[in-house]
Automatic annotation (TrEMBL):
Record-given protein name: Related to WD40-repeat protein (Notchless protein)
Positions of WD repeats: 452-493, 495-536, 537-569, 580-621, 623-664, 666-707, 709-750, 752-793, 795-827, 838-879, 881-922, 924-965, 967-1008, 1010-1051
Alphabetical UniProt keywords: Repeat, WD repeat
CDD domains attached to this UniProt entry: WD40 (cd00200)
Pfam families assigned to the protein according to its UniProt record, in alphabetical order: NPHP3_N, WD40
Gene Ontology cellular component terms for the protein in this record: nucleus; transferase complex
Organism, as annotated: Serendipita indica (strain DSM 11827) (Root endophyte fungus)
Length: 1053
């Protein structure tokens, strides 16, 4: 039988030491590795008893922070010291020890600068350093040490450290593991460290019965509490990466793997933030910091730094800054649950109190981004979405006074809100003592401008944020400006810091940092949310021409005109290794490969240099083919191809592996190629040139797409695609920025004038190439869908407003119906009328429709009748159809031409047999207002209708019964409805100035409402391929929209 631990220790250790007079020190390493709690406790008891018995016996114990060990040792009077040293980066000897270990372990395997990077990445955690060294020394792997090193340095790479963390969490009692995961999830989703008290409060609010102190004690090896600030920190970034991987999906192959429910944690955090707003003692209130006068800006109040923490609790500051992002990152269920709390937060006066905190804490830019992030969700309550959209416009329009002075939220911003805005109509009335503005208040917020102006010199650099909500420009005026991508308005004041012109702007992959390069030879780093400077890279002796991030964001490569290419640590701002050698010529461009392994540079000797990003060694001979200096280069998203632009006016495509040119150069520009970019999906290339044009190219067949884009008055210096690929933003030497639609090549912005009156009807030709529109003013216009330009002269013939237009199925004929009681048929090519007008109605013709075979036209009128016409002769067919008791507003043929559906001002729909002219069944009842639009599904089994009652309804064609509940969301009359050609979705246009796209099966919105019109949307139609929607509005414009989520206005006609 095996002896007990204390007996073994007594026989083997204690007894022999009794006769020894010299001091003996025994080192017991990694006591925490004893998995059994009882064994750890027993071992410590035996050791402590031995020390007490023998005065010359000393024990040195090492362990990760462990509550069992601490509990056993804490009460012992004999202990000399109990300290957490190995996990505390404040003890520099820890880092020194790790440095010595790493240098000894990896000497001769990787270079010294890489060893230094490993030491820094370890961040004082020996377990990470030892794991990294073991991976690099592993002789069984086929990977080169350089590849393993790059994997260790980059983020979101799973390595052996996962096994270490898995062991740590396995030690937690299985009964407590679910609670632990919920607590870790909250720490993971927090946008800044939480205090012990705040996390306790959050847990209590969320109904999670865990102890924060117990969590930190039990996970002391991976969590720490700052004793001064009481903030809880993850000890190492690799733990954050591990927990994020655990939030994706639980791997059933790995036993006891934890699962982190990030969506639920964000919902709990959002709910807690909204609770903080409502606190009667620490919540939102008027004049949060008791500012006595409006005569001083925030920065001029001497004790404001003391007032803010005294008046605004830390958790309220957290809630104000982050509640929107928690709301955006959670799921639809949580957003629906929190509807009432959200509505309270965005209503007056609380929304203004929240803005006070934003003003005091510099939180306006983050709030603008947060509002956009929330409103982008499809199933948001529409009232909330509308109100948040307006709050966002308010913050953008008045960002300067709001950020500069709390009182001027009420005194300068609120009184000048547009008259049509909710804040003006519903909030301003509650502040009688503020300014009363009699003149100068705009009716609406400004529309997207055709060209964006603000810089005082050339715009040489442009970059989009990863979420597409804003773009950033750098100028010859030495400033950097943030712009809202949805309104074109500047976000705050320009960033200043460079002593010369800005040459390049780059955003980090995670969107948190912005890098700018300048003629002054420096590279600056800025916080992407606050605009605050974070640091400066110094080392170039000439102007910085180009900068690029590695894919993980950990490294930066830069080049200057003084013949150098350098790599920097993106976080420490330190140079990594020596500048790349190999060229004695000026370097104009530089780019990282997507995998971070290669760097290519454009040179003024007409070549492209290539380098190993890890070693700095040249990768063979330069790429030759250009006839002048190479000004710009870019990698395809998959890293397989490189494009380069040169002063020889050509663009070349290269194989990134073989370094051979692919095909002939792309030619078309008449000037230097200054800028190039790939679309996110790699299918298109955009180029900007000194010839003042922008060109789009099909990457796969190396052909131009459409005509050059004209608009800039001088050289185009910068171009970039939006993250969703739907737009291009360009900067020019003319000092302006322009946005362009990728599909049509048209600039986004103020409408191009065509109609002078409200648009009443629109239709797209069967080939999708033309749009016809009719207006209140009478003329009919034809448009080119690709260019947005008018085709020929207007079609004149009607004497009053045109209420309806339609193309024949073969596209050769256009039919129009008017208030003048006539229908006119037009040659769609020549625009000439075909014969005499069709007469017969005694009232305005409100609706017309071609049969599927094109042989007949049906019309509905204010005279309450329906007529059928022969489209070839213009003669009436059969008897007039009578049955409605009110004006007929809408009409359509079924796909098989056997039925007609009509909708009237009598709130009903009627079905008719085309062959007999007889009514089929009873009227379809359900709407509470006039029927303004009707249509059949492509299979003919369903009918869709839109009504003045603000709803869309679906009907069963066979039974005439409504299918489910109406589709609700519009805040005004639904004037137009249409099924997509494949029947998968329904589009509706409304007097609320929005278009909504619905899933025809689930009845749910497929994307956020399309906004852009300033007047009622009276007509909508799908393109034949379903990729676009055309709309006509009371704002006198026709607009084309993409049906793809994330793509917005295509063009305004």
């Amino acid at each position: 039988m095996r002896s007990s631990l204390d007996e073994q220790f007594k026989i083997l250790v204690t007894s022999p030491l009794r006769s020894r007079k010299q001091r003996v020190v025994v080192v017991v390493d990694a006591v925490d590795e004893c998995k059994s709690v009882s064994e750890r406790r027993k071992l410590l008891q035996v050791l402590s008893m031995a020390v007490q018995e023998i005065r010359t016996f000393k024990i040195f114990i090492t362990s990760r922070p462990d509550p069992i060990i601490e509990a056993a040792l804490q009460p012992l009077s004999i202990k000399a010291e109990l300290k957490d040293r190995l996990h505390d980066v404040n003890h520099h000897d820890n880092i020194d020890d790790i440095a010595a270990y790493v240098h000894q372990s990896l000497n001769g395997l990787i270079s010294q600068d890489k060893r230094e990077r490993i030491i820094e990445k370890a961040n004082g955690l020996f377990i990470w350093a030892s794991t990294a060294c073991r991976m690099l020394r592993d002789e069984t792997t086929l990977d080169l040490p350089e590849i393993i090193y790059d994997r260790l340095i980059s983020v979101d790479k799973s390595g052996e450290i996962d096994d270490v963390y898995r062991l740590i969490f396995e030690r937690i009692d299985a009964r407590s593991r679910t609670t632990m995961c919920s607590m870790l999830a909250l720490l993971l989703v927090a946008f800044e460290p939480l205090t012990v008290d705040d996390l306790e409060d959050l847990l209590k609010h969320a109904g999670i019965g865990g102890s924060v102190k117990a969590l930190v004690q039990n996970l002391g090896s991976v969590l720490s509490e700052d004793q001064t600030t009481k903030l809880i920190h993850f000890r190492h970034p690799t733990l954050v990466e591990y927990l994020r991987r655990c939030s994706v999906a639980k791997d059933v192959k790995i036993p006891n793997q934890i699962y982190i429910n990030v969506g639920d944690a964000h919902g709990q955090a959002a709910s807690w933030c909204l609770k903080c707003f409502k606190s009667p003692t620490e919540g939102l209130r008027f004049n949060m910091c008791q500012i006595e006068t409006s005569f001083y800006l925030n920065k001029d109040i001497s004790d404001l730094d003391l007032r803010i923490p005294a008046s605004i609790s830390r958790k309220l500051r957290y809630a104000s800054s982050h509640w929107l992002f928690h709301l955006a990152e959670t799921d639809d269920g949580w957003r629906s649950t929190l509807n009432n709390e959200i509505q309270r937060a965005i209503q007056s006066p609380y929304v203004l109190y929240w803005m006070e905190i934003l003003s005091l804490t510099g939180g306006v830019p983050r709030a603008i981004s947060g509002l956009q992030a929330v409103t982008s969700h499809l199933r948001m309550d529409e009232r909330i979405r509308s109100h948040m959209t307006e709050i966002r416009r308010f913050l953008i329009a008045f960002s300067v006074p709001i950020q500069d002075s709390v009182p001027h939220i009420y005194l300068s911003a609120l009184p000048f809100t547009p008259r049509s805005s909710i804040l003006h109509k519903e909030v301003l009335i509650g502040y009688k003592n503020t300014l009363s503005v009699s003149q100068g208040v705009e009716p609406t917020y400004p529309e997207f401008p055709r060209s964006i102006r603000g810089h005082k010199s050339t715009v040489d650099a442009i970059a989009f944020s990863p979420d597409g909500s804003k773009f950033i420009s750098g100028s010859g005026d030495r400033t950097i400006q943030f712009w809202d991508a949805y309104t074109g308005q500047p976000l705050g004041e320009p960033l200043r810091g460079h002593d010369s012109a800005i040459t390049v702007i780059v955003v980090s992959p995670d969107g948190s940092r912005i890098i700018s390069g300048s003629y002054d030879g420096t590279i600056s780093v800025w916080d992407a949310f606050t605009g605050h400077p974070l640091g400066t890279f110094r080392g170039h002796k000439g102007s910085v021409r180009a900068v690029a991030f590695s894919s993980g964001g950990s490294r930066i490569v830069s080049c200057s005109r003084r013949n150098t290419v350098k790599i920097w640590d993106a976080f420490t701002f330190q140079l990594l290794g020596e500048p790349f050698q190999g060229s004695k010529r000026r370097v104009w461009a530089v780019a990282f490969s997507p995998d971070g392994s290669q760097i290519f540079s454009g040179l003024d000797d007409k070549t492209i240099g290539s380098w190993d990003a890890l070693t700095g060694r040249s990768l063979g001979d330069p790429l030759r083919g250009h006839d002048d200096l190479v000004y710009v280069i870019a990698f395809s998203p998959d890293g397989s191809r490189i494009i380069s632009g040169s002063n020889d006016k050509a663009i070349r495509i290269w194989d990134a592996v073989t370094h051979q040119p692919l095909g002939e150069p792309l030619r078309g520009h008449n000037g230097w190629v200054n800028a190039l970019a790939f679309s996110p999906d790699g299918s298109r290339i955009v180029s900007g040139s000194s010839d003042r044009t922008i060109r789009l190219w099909d990457f796969h067949n190396a052909k131009p797409l459409g005509k050059p884009l004209h608009g800039h008055e001088y050289s185009v210096q910068a171009v970039v695609f939006s993250p969703d690929g739907s737009q291009i933003v360009s900067g020019s030497s003319d000092g302006t920025i322009r946005l362009w639609d990728v599909l049509t090549g048209q600039p986004l912005g103020e409408p191009l004038q065509g109609h002078e009156w409200s648009i009443r009807s629109v239709a797209i030709s069967p080939d999708g190439l033309r749009i016809v529109s009719g207006s209140k003013g009478g003329p009919i216009r034809l448009w080119d869908t690709a260019t947005g330009r008018l085709l020929g002269d207007s079609l004149h013939g009607h004497t009053e407003r045109v209420n309806a237009v339609a193309f024949s199925p073969d596209g050769s004929i256009i039919a129009s119906g008017s208030h003048d009681k006539m229908i006119i048929l037009w040659d769609a090519v020549t625009g000439c009328p075909l014969g005499e007008p069709l007469r017969g109605h005694d009232g305005a013709v409100r609706a017309i429709y071609f049969s599927r075979n094109g042989s007949r036209i049906v019309s509905g009128s204010d005279d309450k009748t329906i007529r059928l016409w022969d489209s070839a002769t213009g003669n009436p067919l059969g008897e007039t159809l009578r049955g409605h008791e009110h004006s007929i507003r809408a009409i359509a043929f079924s796909p098989d031409d056997s039925l007609i559906v009509s909708g009237s001002e009598g709130h009903t729909l009627q079905l008719w047999d085309v062959h007999t002219g007889q009514l089929l069944g009873q009227p379809l009842r359900g709407h509470q207002g006039w029927i303004m639009a009707v249509g059949f599904s492509p299979d003919g089994l369903q009918i869709v209708s839109g009504s003045v009652d603000n709803t869309v309804r679906l009907w069963d064609r066979a039974t005439g019964q409504p299918l489910g509940e109406p589709l609700r969301g519009h805040e005004g009359a639904v004037m137009g409805v249409a099924f997509s050609p494949d029947g998968s979705c329904i589009a509706s246009g409304s007097c609320d100035k929005t278009i909504r796209i619905w899933d025809s099966v689930t009845r749910q919105l497929l994307r956020q409402p399309l906004r852009g019109h300033d007047g009622w949307i009276r007509a909508i139609s799908f393109s034949p391929d379903g990729s676009r929607i055309v709309s006509g509005s009371g704002d006198n414009t026709v607009r084309l929209w993409s049906t793809k989520p994330g793509e917005y206005i295509s063009t305004t006609l």
